[in-house]
Amino acid sequence: MVQLRRAKLIPVGVVVLAVVLDLVTPADVTSAPLLMAVPVAAAPLLSLRGIIAIGVLAMAVHAALARYDGTFGWHRGIANQLTLLAVTVLAVLINRALEGRDARTRRARHIAAVAQSAVLPRPPSRLGELRIAARYVPAENEAMIGGDLYVVQDTPHGVRVMVGDVRGKGLGAVSVVCADLGAFRYAADEAEDLPGLVTALERALLREGGRRGGQEQDEGFTTALIVEFAEGLDAVRVVNRGHPPPVLLDAEGRAAVLEPSEEAPPLGMGALGSWSSPVDTFPFPPGATLICYTDGVTEARDESGTFYDASVRLPFLVRHRAPAGAPVTPAELLHLLIEDVGRHTGGRIQDDQALLALHRPRIAPHA
């Protein structure tokens, strides 16, 4: 916003420069060509009234300078004034065209935001004692949703979570995201355990691949992290199918990567063989936060090609960048993490980022 306000001063700066140049140069040297650039420079920066005002100002400044130099006549006075008038009209037309394009872009972004809320709704901020925050950071500003996904659901078997990343981009990836989310929402309530839930997801993805056919049938897959919280939140059970492992941040700010005990391929590759879905159980003590994310975080690189390591950076962020005197909320933690990834990459987002933070308070709210 500050940069935009400063940019709006550019046309005025050009007028000032034209005055200075005209005064320091001989009388037969005119700054009219520089003044003619003023309305064009104002076209993408100012409003309609602002463009007209800066055009009138340029004409008035030119007339005053020409009279001061004694050169105001048909050749270097009236002709330049008519040219400035024509350039101002042209700047108004350019501004109207740019405004129409911006309006279409705003409408497209609004539609994309509505589609995102429908396809990838934000999880509730609280389920029982579990505190939840979610963020989606698109790699492209115009694309509100891509192939990354998250979902949190309260089921008869406990709170179940999935974070995933679909192979591919564009509308094809979004259709698989919809299939993943629909399959998870149904199977999370019905499956007795996590292996049963994974089996149901595999079947759904195979059906989706069969409908789409072609390369997607043979090579379409979804890396997925499927999480289940035990009753009482004392433990967390994790099935990792080719996804970046989550990080467990304890109440003291120490981080541990929850690596799978056995490697397993992504979901949707059942046509190539069958694999087990090992369930790993980890303690989830009071004050702990489970942070799940897609490879847009783990594969973020700096200028030297060094990958971002959330397990190293998270303790630092909690100690040195979190607000002092109060526990870091899940939303604040994700905000710090996303900002830190941006600093690491120099602001160059290389892939979509879907992030979830799930926190167990130190003391139960009802205590």
Q: What is the topology?
A:
Blueprint: H1 2-7, H2 10-24, H3 32-42, H4 48-69, H5 74-119, E1 126-127, E2 130-137, E3 148-155, E4 158-166, H6 170-190, H7 194-212, H8 214-219, E5 222-229, E6 235-241, E7 247-249, E8 255-257, E9 280-283, E10 289-293, H9 295-298, H10 310-320, H11 330-345, E11 353-359
Antiparallel strand pairs: 1-2, 2-11, 3-4, 4-5, 5-6, 6-9, 7-8, 7-10, 10-11
Helix pairs in contact: 2-3, 2-4, 3-4, 3-5, 4-5, 6-7, 10-11
Note down, in words, how this protein is organized.
With 367 residues, this protein is α+β, with helices and mostly antiparallel strands. It has 2 domains: 2-113, no CATH class; 120-359, PPM-type phosphatase domain (Phosphatase 2c, domain 1, 4-Layer Sandwich), CATH 3.60.40.10. Helix content is 48%, strand content 17%. The protein has helices at residues 2-7, 10-24, 32-42, 48-69, 74-119, 170-190, 194-212, 214-219, 295-298, 310-320, 330-345; strands spanning 126-127, 130-137, 148-155, 158-166, 222-229, 235-241, 247-249, 255-257, 280-283, 289-293, 353-359. It has a 6-stranded antiparallel sheet. A 5-stranded antiparallel sheet has the order 3-4-5-6-9, with helices on one face.
